[in-house]
């Protein structure tokens, strides 16, 4: 089995990546890091550039975690994450989530909500540390 991380090049993605690496190492499983986009880096700031991906690979190497980084350009990011989780028989899907306003809490982000509801494996939703005062 494999741990799959839905990674973006921001604080949420970093939190998910670190936790996913910890889970993979603790269970002796490989890690697949998925940074999917439905557009291009020019219009989707969550799609990582080469420097970001190199940083991820270096971090994972330093943690001693066997990892594969995938960057598919797809029509539906949620479907891509679910497909990878199915393909590798994921033991867990790790995603980063963000702070929501009271209304936002009622209407959780569509990607996170769909992953939580549709994934066949357990989903671990990780929050990034927030700046003081929030």
TrEMBL record:
Residues 2-127 form the UspA domain. InterPro entries: Rossmann-like_a/b/a_fold, Universal_stress_UspA, UspA. CDD domains: USP-like. PANTHER family: STRESS RESPONSE PROTEIN NHAX, UNIVERSAL STRESS PROTEIN UP12. Belongs to the universal stress protein A family. This is Universal stress protein. It comes from Cellulomonas aerilata.
